[in-house]
Design goal:
With 280 residues, this protein is mostly beta strands. It folds into 2 domains: 119 residues, no CATH class; 152 residues, no CATH class. It has a 17-stranded mixed sheet that branches. The chain has a two-stranded antiparallel sheet with strand order 5-6.
């Protein structure tokens, strides 16, 4: 039976009507790895600094947490097939004088198949998925500054890598290393960069739904690209792509070793295609 692991970190509560002294505390929590079965990891975090990495020291997870102990309490509960980690609110309304003072550093086990769900709010996120064997990825954020990468290839095939960003500065690199069959991007308002570098092992379908903002597609030379554009008042800088009927294609699309088909639905803004060195 598939093992399910849920990691929940409660959001910071902010209310300008109340102000209390903050007592910051730092804790480290971890658990030994006992099984190699597939797990589902869910992470929720509100405001502060948020990092994700892999760990290969025989641990299921390791979490370093800095939190306001007057307002939150750390959680490390294992109940059946559910593991909850992080903090819970004590129910007090507080005004965060420095919301970036909170921090969550999370390391997850390498090599174990993981269905990963990350949800975070007003954070500065630095996420590197290298070393994680991801079967699916679902990442959503609000008003954040996020950098997501996979600096090493995913050792297992992934079904869907799904990204959702609200009013965000959102940058993803090395998408090829995810080894995903589908890549989905749902963006509201902001600056979005999708980098398709990395080591491709299969063709992929890419769906992009964008509201207002700028989108940059960074595509390595040699990767076949077909782009379908359904947009309203959106400028497309399609350098390196040839328009054929209702689609844009790279010159080598049919002969490329690997190909991506991009369905783009954008309302207002700009879309730019940038060709990069395949090693980037």
């Amino acid at each position: 039976m598939r093992k399910v692991v849920a990691v929940a970190v409660a959001a910071w509560v902010m209310n300008p009507m109340f102000a209390e002294a903050q007592e910051w505390r730092t804790v480290t929590m971890s658990q030994q790895l006992e099984r190699n079965e597939e797990i589902r990891v869910q992470v929720e975090y509100g405001a502060g600094r948020f990092t994700v990495r892999s760990v290969d020291e025989g641990l299921l997870y390791r979490m370093n947490l800095r939190y306001d102990e007057d307002s939150f309490v750390p959680v490390a509960e294992l109940s059946g097939d559910r593991l909850r980690l992080g903090v819970e609110s004590l129910g007090r309304s507080v005004r965060m004088r420095n919301r970036q003072a909170g921090e969550l550093e999370l390391e997850l086990a390498r090599g174990i198949p993981i269905d990963l769900d990350l949800e975070f709010g007003a954070v500065k996120a630095d996420i590197d998925l290298a070393g994680l064997a991801l079967t699916d990825l679902d990442l959503s954020t609000g008003a954040s500054e996020s950098l997501i990468t996979a600096s090493e290839p995913n050792p297992v095939p992934m079904g869907t890598a799904s990204f959702e960003a609200g009013a965000a500065e959102f940058h993803v690199t090395q998408l090829g290393n995810l080894n995903a069959e589908r890549i989905e991007m749902d963006a509201g308002v902001g600056s979005i960069t999708l980098g398709f570098g990395g080591r491709w092992k299969q063709d992929a379908r890419v769906s992009i739904d964008m509201g207002l903002g700028s989108l940059e597609l960074r595509i390595p030379e040699g990767l076949g690209v077909r782009l379908r554009k359904d947009s309203f008042l959106t400028a497309l800088d399609s350098e390196g792509l040839i328009k054929r009927g209702d689609v844009y294609e790279s010159l080598d699309f049919e002969d490329a070793d690997y190909r991506i088909v991009i369905d783009l639905d954008a309302a207002f803004g700009s879309v730019t295609v940038v060709w990069i060195d395949p090693t980037n």
